[in-house]
TrEMBL record, chain B:
<dbReference type="GO" id="GO:0009249">
    <property type="term" value="P:protein lipoylation"/>
</dbReference>
<dbReference type="InterPro" id="IPR011053">
    <property type="entry name" value="Single_hybrid_motif"/>
</dbReference>
<comment type="function">
    <text>The glycine cleavage system catalyzes the degradation of glycine. The H protein shuttles the methylamine group of glycine from the P protein to the T protein.</text>
</comment>
<dbReference type="GO" id="GO:0005829">
    <property type="term" value="C:cytosol"/>
</dbReference>
<dbReference type="InterPro" id="IPR033753">
    <property type="entry name" value="GCV_H/Fam206"/>
</dbReference>
<feature type="domain" description="Lipoyl-binding">
    <location>
        <begin position="18"/>
        <end position="100"/>
    </location>
</feature>
<dbReference type="GO" id="GO:0019464">
    <property type="term" value="P:glycine decarboxylation via glycine cleavage system"/>
</dbReference>
<dbReference type="InterPro" id="IPR000089">
    <property type="entry name" value="Biotin_lipoyl"/>
</dbReference>
<comment type="similarity">
    <text>Belongs to the GcvH family.</text>
</comment>
<keyword id="KW-0450">Lipoyl</keyword>
<dbReference type="InterPro" id="IPR002930">
    <property type="entry name" value="GCV_H"/>
</dbReference>
<comment type="subunit">
    <text>The glycine cleavage system is composed of four proteins: P, T, L and H.</text>
</comment>
<dbReference type="GO" id="GO:0005960">
    <property type="term" value="C:glycine cleavage complex"/>
</dbReference>
<feature type="modified residue" description="N6-lipoyllysine">
    <location>
        <position position="59"/>
    </location>
</feature>
<dbReference type="InterPro" id="IPR003016">
    <property type="entry name" value="2-oxoA_DH_lipoyl-BS"/>
</dbReference>
<protein>
    <recommendedName>
        <fullName>Glycine cleavage system H protein</fullName>
    </recommendedName>
</protein>
<dbReference type="Pfam" id="PF01597">
    <property type="entry name" value="GCV_H"/>
</dbReference>
Length: 524, 123
């Protein structure tokens, strides 16, 4: 069953109502025009009635507001309709395939939501007495156990709140370890070109100098160049695996051995762990620290749907420096190890990343995902993610240039370039035309090493029928770009708004709504 | 006055000890519509190859590396309000900053206009 376009309607077929007069409202049947909320509501209307304050004397002094606040007043149904109408102009993972290469898994099983909403998890407060939250602590401890097991590492810090926060956690542990060794003078972190953009930012934020390591023509780390740069000033390397070119860094173990021999540590950006989970244990590759995006590999919602969560797994060497707090099982009891209780056996911890214990709602969802899939299920997740991406890559490499097609199988992301497009046509034209075809566009112009890059991450849950439909749409649009079809330049044609002036929007952004002058005068 | 280019697509015009730095027409074409430029502050000391400025287009953000060492005299004040100057006149009005060269011999490693044209033709 195909997820979209079940009616068989095609953009080339005559559009329903194509010759009809414009409607009075501007609406097109189910596609509703919607003004800004400020244009609907006024400050004479309100959806709630608030009693005047009982206190007669204000204690705000001269700080009390004198002018009207100018918030739009709407009733509850008006407000609900406004946002529901807007949401219908949007695209969502529950509508169709989302080819964006994202830090977020585009599959959020409903079972996760059911578990996270259990009152015993959902209604907890982080300051509740430990004896009343034993179940929640057990969830954290069990999830920690499985993360350590799946990665082949020694320990895990659960509290970091997102991928980049996890990177910082790992790099701070490396910094603490170096200082403990009396080698705080190691100030350089090597970051290959194939790493995520957050990696150099993290290293710089933690006080290290960043040096680039070039990529080879096949899209992987230049191992020889990296080895040549190792020395007594190197604190470590940050490698993304699978990397931003969608490739597995096959030399990682060799690199780790060389870095360790030179006295440095290996940080692995594990944002793309979903492509290798159940198949590869980063601990076996010599990794010292790696963040895991629960909102990616373990399917917890992010990107508008919920907070990120980026636990960091550590090697035995870095474990003493991991941040607080963590959960420890003592007999039948689960204890929270914090500053007051850590001195005896975790004195070298570099400190704390968060006020509390991490994203509890994400922990519940991630553990649900792990337990409901099992070892074989998780392995299949990785295999299907890789299979789907390779299916897209190989199905389209006759029309689109695939710069790394000769570098072996891709991981969970297929990458194409704009090579061969007719003069004046670019990746953005293909992306906009995909909107007309009923798909969210793929990632554009990233990675930077690929000219006019198009990065497609199909998600492991997509069926062959859905993938075939997407491949057909992208093939059709790519052929138009190769042939120089002028209509592509103004796409999308069927979206609620046609091509927007992104340049003007970036150069002169309008971030604050102002009442039109005539309206303001009339109100005075 | 003579003009030199780097392999990273910066240009520098040198007049005595003073250099004017910008990015090449090829570079602006690759970046696309430029929406933001951050130029260095007056008096900033730069070593050849340092990150000197930032340029952002609708596609990407890039660092601009200083082609020479020296002290910044001024950044182009016009780019804050009108970053599009880098697209419309990259090798003229769209200059990024002026710098007092501390080591003019560094220019010897750069390309002249014809060498740069040949370099770009091979990309």
């Amino acid at each position: 069953m195909s997820a979209i376009n079940q009616s068989g309607w095609r953009p080339t077929a005559p559009q329903q109502g194509g010759n009809a007069a414009p409607t009075f409202t501007g609406n097109k049947a189910l596609m509703l025009e919607e003004p800004l909320i400020f244009e609907i509501g006024d400050n004479h209307t309100t959806g709630v009635e608030v009693a005047p304050p009982v206190t007669a004397t204000s204690r705000l002094g001269g700080l009390a507001r004198t002018a009207a606040i100018d918030l739009p007043g709407l009733s509850e149904p008006e407000t609900v309709r406004h946002y529901t109408r807007l949401s219908r102009q949007n695209y969502a993972i529950d509508l169709g395939l989302f080819p964006l290469g994202s830090c977020t898994m585009k599959h959020n099983p409903r079972l996760n939501e059911k578990m996270a909403r259990l009152p015993g998890f959902a209604d907890l407060h982080p300051l509740q007495p430990i004896d009343t939250v034993q179940g929640a602590l057990e969830v954290i401890q069990q999830l920690a156990h499985w993360l350590v097991t799946l990665t082949g590492m020694h320990s895990v810090a659960m509290s970091p709140k997102a991928g980049a926060h996890g990177e910082l956690c790992g790099i701070l542990a490396i910094k603490a370890a170096l200082e403990k060794r009396g080698e705080g003078h190691r100030k350089v972190i090597l970051v290959p070109e194939s790493a995520h953009g957050t990696n150099p930012a993290t290293a710089a934020f933690a006080g290290f100098a960043v040096e680039d390591i070039p990529a080879t023509a096949d899209g992987r780390v230049d191992t020889a160049a990296l080895k040549a740069r190792l020395g007594p000033d190197i604190a470590g390397v940050m490698i993304t695996n699978p990397n931003t070119c969608g490739l597995f860094e096959r030399d990682l173990r060799t690199i780790s051995e060389a870095v360790h021999a030179a006295g440095g540590y290996v940080y692995c950006d594990g944002a793309n762990f979903n492509a290798i989970v159940g198949r590869v244990r980063p601990g076996d590759l010599g990794v010292d620290a790696m963040h895991i995006n629960l909102h990616k590999t373990f399917s917890t919602p992010h990107g508008g749907g919920g907070p990120g969560s980026g636990p960091v797994v550590f090697s035995e060497r870095l474990t003493p420096f991991a941040p607080l707090p963590f959960v420890e099982k003592r007999g039948d009891h689960f204890a929270l190890v914090e500053e007051e209780t850590a001195q005896d056996h975790h004195a070298d911890s570099f400190g704390r990343m968060t006020a509390f214990h991490g994203q509890m709602g994400m922990f519940t969802r991630a553990l649900t995902y792990i337990l409901s899939h099992g070892a074989d299920g998780l392995r299949q997740v990785a295999e299907d993610a890789v299979l789907n991406a390779n299916y897209v890559l190989r199905s389209l490499s006759d029309v689109l240039d695939a710069p790394f097609a000769a570098s072996g199988p891709c991981m969970h992301e297929a990458i194409f370039s704009d090579k061969g497009f007719a003069e004046g046509f670019s990746t953005i034209d293909v992306a906009k035309a995909l909107i007309d075809e009923g798909f969210h566009p793929m990632t554009m112009y990233f990675p930077l090493v690929v000219h006019g890059a198009m990065l497609v991450e199909p998600t492991e849950t997509e069926s062959k029928a859905t993938l075939d439909q997407f491949i057909g749409a992208l093939r059709s649009v790519a052929e138009r770009a190769l042939a120089g079809d002028e209509t592509l330049r103004t796409a999308p044609h069927f979206a609620p708004r046609s091509r927007l002036d992104e340049t003007l929007a970036a150069r002169k952004p309008v971030l604050v709504w102002k009442a039109p002058e005539t309206t303001a005068e009339a109100a005075e | 006055m003579s003009r030199y280019f780097t392999q990273d697509h910066e240009w520098i015009d040198v007049d005595g000890e003073t250099g004017t730095v910008g990015i090449s027409d090829y570079a602006q074409g690759q970046l696309g519509d430029i929406v933001f430029v951050e130029v260095p502050e007056d008096g900033k000391k730069l070593t050849k190859g340092d990150d000197a400025a930032v340029v952002e287009s609708v596609k990407a953000a890039s660092d601009v590396y200083s082609p020479v060492s020296g002290t910044v005299i001024e950044g182009n004040p016009a780019l804050a309000d009108d970053p599009a100057l880098v697209n419309s006149d990259p090798e003229g009005e769209g200059w990024f900053y002026k710098i007092t060269l501390s080591d003019p011999s560094e220019l010897e490693a750069l390309m002249d206009e014809s060498a740069y044209e040949a370099f770009v033709a091979k990309l």
